Amino acid sequence: MFFGGSKYSRRGAISRVLILLIVSILLVVLLGYFALRLRPDAHRTTFSQTTVRVYCASGVAQPVEQVINFYNQAYGVNVQIVRTGGSGELAGQIKTEFETGLLGGADLYITADDQLLAKAHHEGLVAERLSLAEQKPVIAVATSSNLTIRNLRDLVQMNDIKYGIASERAAIGKLTRRIAKRDGVLMELESNKATDSENVMTLAQALVAGSLDAAVIWDTTVAQINESNGQSEQPRLKIAAVADPLNEFQSKIAIGVVSATEAPTECLKFARYLTAPETGKAAFEAFGFAFVEGDSWEEVPEIHLYCGSMFTPVLEEAVRQFASREGVNIYPRWEGCGKLVSSMKSIDDADVFPDAYLACDVIFLEEVIDQFESPTTVSKNQIVMAVSKDLAGEIREPADLLDQDLRFGICDPSQSALGELTKKMLTGEPFVGYYDRLEMKAAVTVDAGPTLMSQLLAGGLDVAFVYRSNVMASDRSLEKLRIVEIDKRSKNVVATQPWAVSRTTRNPVLMKRFFEWISRPEIKKRFEKFGFELVDP
Fold it and tell me: Fewer C-beta within 10 Å: the chain N or C terminus?
């Protein structure tokens, strides 16, 4: 009995322990699961959970709708045109929503007037902008019409015909008036019109219905009306004349991401799809638009970005923010420009060649300039001596380093722009002959300015030739070091920083947006904070 009782007693105890253990583990897992589910920062909005609301100019709606349908089917998302109208009307609505803080408004704005988009961007209503297509103003009539019209002057001087133009709130209406003003017939145009409709499609439908004899509309609107009639039917409209024979005025259709959107990444992804030649071109050309090709379509583009090491404290966070907003992968490389150039010269694979390069000085772009488009100067940065504050007053110019037993450092001319410019500076006027002597006395020769700064702050060096921005990159540097300026009679005491986009990049439009991103006022302030002198483009 004793052994039997003991046996069953022990089995029961083990079972209870196991059950309690299993239950405890399950509770921990469940609690952890619900904790993660309830954490606000654990929630991620997916494309399928977000509706991207599009305000679209009426004359552009048909090709845009077609592309939207393909996009939604391909990616299981929810992009919708929720409002159409004249470009100016839509711009006014977006401005009202912005100023009143109205929720549920536009996320994307597609306009037939890129000047309206530029104005909205200037006012802060729109962030990113991408070009889409072009169209021309024409004088259209019904296919059966026998009217002979050569230009706007003929139109306004004809008796017994009813013609229409669009409201000034529509892009076509604004452009029509600009042409009429140039041709000296604006007063007659306004006086003799039968109507000024709010948008171009209303005018086109009036022509089809016969309530108007002629109207100034887009060439693409004629194509859209005829396309919608079916290939088996006769065209309903025809172009009687080009409204602007001098071809001075065209409509540039563009798409803008509304600043107030809560879904910028989803907006930008669709904008890239809409403007890509593989995914947007066919729909626009089918309706007669001259498509402006954007970047080749990739759901998640990969960008290789080369930046001189001096830019790390200024731009590192901005690069991360841009990648997150755009929904792209960016692989930045922050190194001395000598190393970056050597790397570029050895790259055979176009897929890993940098899409863009921000150089520490023009001399390190010139070595690879054939592989880049024309550069834009961004800033200037002065070479200085960073001196330990313990030596205050003892170091005033490079000559002082020749006469004292000090630990100082320079950069390698083959690895960095700083090193190359330091060498040029100390071999030319007014420092002829200095470089060889200083190179022999230097305690270290390193790859980049930040390496010298680390050794200065660690107490391993007393002095170093660095950029002003290197010293101003941290409060600790400013606390422990003082900046000694070098005689500006030297031609090479100031470095000039150019930005250039690769000729072979698959994403030139994205790179243009990145440059605009780092040209924002808040980033310019960072450049100035770290000692750069900005150069107006």
Answer: N
Q: Minimal CA–CA distance to 260: which of 100, 113, 41?
A: 100
Q: 195: how many CB neighbours lie within 10 A of its CB?
A: 16
The pLDDT of residue 29: 44
State how far Cα 305 lies from the chain centre: 14
State the residue for tokens 């019409």. 145
Half-sphere CA count of 303, side-chain side, radius 13 A: 31
Three-point CA angle 124, 130, 133, nearest 5°: 130
Confidence at 359, pLDDT banded by 50, 70, 90:
very high
Q: Looking at 249-373, which runs of residues are DSSP E strands?
A: 251-258, 290-291, 302-308, 329-335, 356-358
Q: Could you give the angle at which helices 200-209 and 219-228 cross, rounded to 10 degrees?
A: 50
pTM here is 0.81
Structural domains of the chain, with CATH: 47-133+252-291 (3.40.190.10), 137-249 (3.40.190.10), 300-537 (3.40.190.10)
- E strands along 27-123, which residues? 51-57, 78-85, 108-111
The verdict on whether omega for the bond into residue 430 sits within 30 degrees of 0, i.e. cis, is yes
Rounded to whole angstroms, how far apart are CA atoms 152 and 48? Answer: 49
* Burial (CB count <10 Å: 0-12, 13-18, 19+), residue 537: exposed
- Residue 214 per-residue DSSP state: E
In this prediction, what percent of the chain has a pLDDT beyond 70? Answer: 90
Residue 425 has pLDDT above 60, yes or no: yes
What residue type is 184 in one-letter code?
A: G
Q: Residue 345 above 70 pLDDT?
A: yes
Question: And the tokens for 455?
Answer: 């050794």
Find the mean pLDDT for residues 54-69. 94
Q: Is the pLDDT of residue 341 over 60?
A: yes
For tokens 């960016």, the residue is 330
| Residue 522, pLDDT score | 96
Quick check: 71 and 77 in contact, CB under 8 A?
Answer: yes
